[in-house]
Design a protein that fits this description.
It is a single chain. Helix 2 crosses helix 4. The chain is elongated, with a radius of gyration of 20 Å. It has helices at residues 9-16, 22-35, 47-55, 66-73, 79-82, 242-251, 261-264; strands at residues 7-8, 85-86, 115-123, 127-137, 142-146, 153-154, 163-170, 173-180, 187-194, 200-210, 213-223. The chain has two domains: 7-86; 110-264, Beta Barrel (Lipocalin). An eight-stranded antiparallel β-barrel has the order 3-4-5-7-8-9-10-11. The protein has a two-stranded antiparallel sheet with strand order 1-2. It has seven helices and eleven strands. Helix content is 21%, strand content 29%. It is of the alpha+beta class.
Length: 266
């Protein structure tokens, strides 16, 4: 039997999110610190303090607003539990309502995915497709979404595809299906990984092109900064040229900040 060394829950949770370095932690820390809407945005710990945290070498608990940020990063975890030593891996709550993958509990809450995302993929004979999709958490592990307004755009056709999405989080994977609401024929599946920092979703979609043919292509999503969209009527906006938005999205890494509406709309 393998002996397990005591570790703090924070380290195990970061490992579950595949966040193994200081720069990855800082990117996620800054995003959650900004979301708290405090009078002064908290700064992340120094590199030395971060490694003391994950090594369990802090006396007591972190000072100042660090506790607020950490509890926002890990919903359902108090800072006392995050820094408690344990011989076992922390467990998230197992889904209990007959969902897609009951045995694979999400390692983050679906609420983290709430908001606007610019998404891009390619379609054979059509070229680039771009849209602005709003995801809405309807439970701790399930999200729904739709990609209008504004109207989606595709490179070689007059109108883009209006997609409705229903998906579930299994660990850090968003798995579900989409349907083109403009007709009753085209539909498919999606499988996206939620990259550390939760600003990029990256994976694949599958689609039917006939009753006996299935195709698949990469599908990439980048979070859009929602702070500046509160008073914006999305129905009045128009996506920039599909080729331009597609190229912009493909260049983004998980350490980049969210895009602004001005980056992707005319």
């Amino acid at each position: 039997m393998r002996n397990s060394m005591p570790t703090i829950a924070l380290k195990a949770l970061l490992r579950a999110r595949h966040m193994h370095g200081y720069s990855e932690f800082v990117a996620e820390y800054r995003r959650h610190a900004k979301a708290l809407d405090l009078p002064v945005i908290p700064e992340p710990p120094t590199k030395a303090h971060y490694y003391k945290w994950v090594a369990g070498q802090v006396k007591g608990l972190p000072r100042g607003p660090h506790c607020l940020v950490l509890e926002h990063m890990f919903p359902g975890w108090t800072v006392e539990r995050l820094f408690a030593l344990s011989d076992t891996e922390p467990q998230t709550e197992v889904v209990a309502d007959g969902a897609l993958s009951d045995e694979l509990a999400p390692s983050l809450s679906a609420a983290v995915l709430n908001g606007l995302w610019v998404t891009t993929y390619r379609v054979e004979d059509v070229g680039c497709h771009v849209d602005l999709t709003r995801l809405t958490a309807v439970s701790g592990h399930r999200v729904t979404g739709r990609n209008w307004p504004p109207e989606p755009r595709s490179e070689k056709v007059h109108t883009g595809y209006r997609n409705e999405i229903d998906a579930e989080l299994s660990q850090r994977h968003l798995v579900g299906h989409w349907r083109n609401s403009r007709d009753s024929y085209y539909f498919g599946a999606l499988h996206l990984a939620v990259l550390p920092g939760e600003t990029i979703l990256s994976g694949l979609y599958t689609a039917n092109t006939s009753d006996v043919t299935v195709v698949g292509e990469p599908w990439k999503w980048v979070r859009v900064n929602e702070t500046a969209t509160a008073d914006t009527d999305l129905g009045e906006l128009r996506m920039k040229a599909p080729e331009q938005v597609y190229a912009l999205v493909q260049q983004r890494s998980r350490l980049d900040p969210p895009l602004g509406l001005a980056d992707i709309t005319e």
